[in-house]
Please model this.
Amino acid sequence: MSMITMKNVYYQYPLEKEQVLKNINLSIEKGKVYGLVGHNDAGKTTLCNVIRGFIPSFYRGKLTGEIELDGKTIQEYSMGDLATRIGYSFQNPFTQISGVKETVFEEIAYGLENLGTAPEVIGEKVRELIAMFKLDALQEKNPFELSGGQKQRVALAAIIALDPEVIVIDEPTSQLDPQGTEEIFKIIDLMKKKGKTIILVEHKIDLIAAYVDEVIVMSQGEIKMIGKTSEVFTNKEVLTYGGQLPQVALLSLALQNAGITMPTIPITLVEAQQAIEKILSREV
Amino acid sequence: MTNAIQKLYPSTKMSIVLAVILFTLMMPGYISQYSVFPIFIIIAFISGVGTKFLSAFIKSIFVLVLFIFVFQCFLIPSDTVIWSKGILTLYKEGLEASLLMTSKIIAISSSLIWFFLVTPIKDMMFALEKAGFSKKFTFVIYSTIQLIPQMKKLSQTILEAQKSRGIETEGSLMIRLKAFLPMLGPLVLSSIQQTEEKVLALEARAFSATVRKSSYYQMSKKPVDYLVISVIFIGFMIFVWWRFFK
Model:
């Protein structure tokens, strides 16, 4: 079932001469995780802003085409409604702190307060999220005193608190260390298991390969490739659009060139391990 | 926050401030107004913020009051000269005007300093929202208060970045001024840029939702609040009767 559909979408920022998005046709299926990849300035964040409705309600400019969420055009939703339907976690953790709350606990609760949720429900939900995001030690700290990675986790928790059906996450791990990155991806996986539809903008291709169902490759404002992760990330065409392939896929392709053929091109470490084991058992 | 006075509901504490302001404005002369200051020193110590109160008063109001006092004394001319030396002449009317004005400033500012020291911002915002003020209004106040230390931190970062590029930031007043001016550009621009991102981040937290905002943080008026408000109201009515009808 299609959750978001975009037909012939074009967008041009005010005062810009060129279109930032061109001929976007996209269908986002309910319950799937999408990885949105591409080089810088490919239009990934702009596409996310269109999906979330920040374009054209906040950024003006020229937007044409049809964008539907759950069968209704995005313009039919109020900004308040959209906050509960599409969660958005931004790239910059420093500007995601509301600035009106004195503790991490209250920061996560802020969105729920804006929705008029009863205090006892807020307490229950926030405590659950604090445990999920492992923020117990930070819950009484001022959000401004947190590191970039900690702020990012708090911001994502605050968005998930609103229980949106779709979650757009723009480069959540750009400020995180490997352990923090792993934790964020575990949460993304958990959200997927809860049936959430997730659109994830991320440069860490190996993690994208391990967690997402489908990959959208963007370049110069256009969607160049879209398909299952295993299909897109085994196709060298990605490289022509300034994209990357997972390390294990690159290794496998290099081995193929050297005459060592793998049964399938792996995209994750687990698949690579299985493929190598097969080759080794064949040689024995 | 264990002190009983600090625990009072914000509007109760504000009613004390309002009573002081009205008393100050309605009462003739300056002796009663000046006497408000020592009373507030005592109240501040009972409230557990005595040292902070004195420090805030000296750092902010004292210098201002001294400045106003001196200017008023020497700048309002009249026939009665109290003291004169060189170009400086102290007139009787000038002195009286200074005493009247500074006594009011001291009384009102002491009550306000005390109020802000014993009322956490969180309590103030809760009370304002509960009183029906829009969340946009409380957001502007709250975020501005929180923004000041952030701006200070940002300016420090910019200053350090400039220092690392060889710009002199320490020394005479001129050197400091020269370093300060180029800092303003990045400070203002980055603040504007962050505002844009912050607006979107707030929208993502349902800031535009049309439902009435709730609050996880709760506080309510207790019997002691009603008692304090009643005492203040009765006391003020007696004062008005004594001042205007007796």
